[in-house]
Amino acid sequence: MSEAQAVTDESTAASDLTAFQQNILTILAEEPMYGLAIKRELEAYYGSEVNHGRLYPNLDDLVDHGLVEKSELDKRTNQYELTDEGHDIVLGQIEWVLDRFVADETRADEVRALLE
């Protein structure tokens, strides 16, 4: 199964998404972006090139499942924006990670320090 085919249900949970798709949602949580800006953010995170054949099918799947909204900036450029459902997916993933990571007060302090 390809990465772009991983999301198949109408109701999508973070566990249904690939890590790559979750990273796209996280990037879009900051602000709406066009495809090449998303690509640059992913490349900075991964430290390697992200090809168009990987990025755009995954963006299209996220749009198809209502997690990202696609609009046209101009004839050649699309903008992508997180939907409310996409926001909920990102927030749920953060909650899931924090529930497992914050096992004691020391780790809670580490998380608080990140937020300051």
Automatic annotation (TrEMBL):
It comes from the Archaea. Residues 24-88 form the Transcription regulator PadR N-terminal domain. InterPro entries: Metal_resp_DNA-bind_regulator, Tscrpt_reg_PadR_N, WH-like_DNA-bd_sf, WH_DNA-bd_sf. This is Transcriptional regulator, PadR-like family protein.
